[in-house]
Amino acid sequence: MSLERRAVVRAWLALGVACAVCAGSPPAGAGVMRLEPWRGHVSLGYGHLFSDSLSPGGSISVAGGVDYPLNATLRVGPVIGISILGSHDVKRGSITAGLDYTLLDAALQLHWLPRSGRVTRVSLGPGVAAARSQLQVGAGGAGFLDLAVDEVRPEVALDVSAMPRRQQIVAVGLEAGVRVVAVRRVTWTLTTLRLTIHY
């Protein structure tokens, strides 16, 4: 088994173990996992990739997820996001090629809800990301193949949110996030700033 496949398998195993632990740890007093405590969120905003000199200018980033309470200050749940990060033109000799960057990721995060301060939610967990920089070139594309990326790799996902503490039905706030993905050629670090809606 290749190193890349082993890394992906380890990430999925970590997700599976975390899910199993969470499924066996409902809130105190609850015999089974009920539907009422589940919460969801949707986030929309801007994502920017830091990788190397070819990093694009950044563009739209969207994410959504659900979470379940473990106790008064901890929740757990999956989040899925996609970031369309823009394009970058590369010139070699007389040929110009374009690279279109996207990142699709899924993570299982533990959410900590601080009791005071401006930050109301800190989310951290492992995940899996599909990192892609698609090559757009006519003749002579073989000279740019080293720049193309199409990999599924493990990631670390961190989000920090600020929103009203008293959530009735819907709460709106700001979410800043980081995704670190160990792409083979160069590590991808995605930063996001999004409007988040929790319901």
Keywords:
Porin, mainly beta, 1 helix, 199 residues, eight-stranded antiparallel barrel, 8 strands, elongated
In total, the number of domains comes to 1
Overall pLDDT, averaged? 84
Gyration radius over CA: 19 Å
CATH level 1 class label: Mainly Beta
- Might you state the CATH topology name? Porin
Number of helices: 1
Folded structure, characterized:
The chain has one helix spanning about 5-25; strands spanning about 40-50, 60-70, 75-90, 95-110, 120-135, 150-160, 170-180, 190-199. By secondary structure, it is mainly beta. The chain has one domain (about 5-199): Porin. Strands 1-2-3-4-5-6-7-8 form an eight-stranded antiparallel β-barrel. The longest helix is centred in the N-terminal third of the chain and has 21 residues, at about 5-25. It is elongated. The termini are far apart. The relative contact order is 0.19.
Question: How would you sum up this structure in a few lines?
Answer:
It contains one helix and eight strands; from the N terminus they run αββββββββ. With 199 residues, it is mainly beta.
